Amino acid sequence: MNIGFELNGKPTTLEIEQRETLAEVLRGRCRLTGVKISCEAQVCGSCTVLVDGLPVSACTLLAYEVRGKRVTTIEGVADVSGKLHPLQQAFLDNFSFQCGFYTPGMILAAKALLDESSNVTEEDIVAHMNGNLCRCTGYLPIIKAIRQAAVEMRGRK
Ligand code: FES
Q1: Residue 135's pLDDT is what?
Q2: What is the pTM of this model?
Q3: Among 12, 53, 107, 124, which lies 20 to 30 A Cα-Cα from 87?
Q4: C-alpha atoms less than 13 angstroms from C-alpha of 152 in its C-beta half-sphere
């Protein structure tokens, strides 16, 4: 079947199998390997992408369900000049990753939170990031990075 949607700001049309997940299509057909697949059961958050601005697990969403929608992966988060998003910069500044496998999903989940409101408390961040696991970093540098990015994003408004 054919689907049309917006992918990282660009109109995109793809021929897909009806049974393919969004994660499979983004990685396999679009070569967007920032979408990581781990548990394949909507538990770890590594495959998080944004659909119409909201975080979803691409491992369990069938690709045809994004027809007509806006999909953002980590490859579409920096601005067009290549300048990193405040969250990407904050993750670097705070060493908020180790192997980095779960980082794209973390950044996209955090982006959804801060796009809605950058006026967030640590409790808001912890509650929102509940569905994103990381095996090696520890969560404190991640929370610190999201708080730094929130301050930066508030300053831009
Ligand atoms: S791979 Fe999708 S939630 Fe774990």
Answers
A1: 82
A2: 0.96
A3: 12
A4: 16
What's the pLDDT tens digit per position in 12-22?
999 999 999 99
Q: Which atom of ligand 1 is nearest to the CA of 44?
A: 4
Q: Cα–Cα distance between 103 and 155 in angstroms, integer?
A: 24
Give the chain as a 3 state SS string. CEEEEEECCEEEEEECCCCCEHHHHHHHHCCCCCCCCCCCCCCCCCCEEEECCEEEECCCCEHHHHCCCEEECHHHCCCCCCCCCHHHHHHHHCCCCCCCCCHHHHHHHHHHHHHHCCCCCHHHHHHHHHHCCCCCCCCHHHHHHHHHHHHHHHHHC
Contact 114, 146 (CB under 8 A): yes
Burial 46-81 (b: 16+ CB within 10 A, else e): bbbbbbeeebbbbbebebbebeebbbbbbbbbeeee
Q: Determine the atom of ligand 1 nearest the C-alpha atom of 42.
A: 3
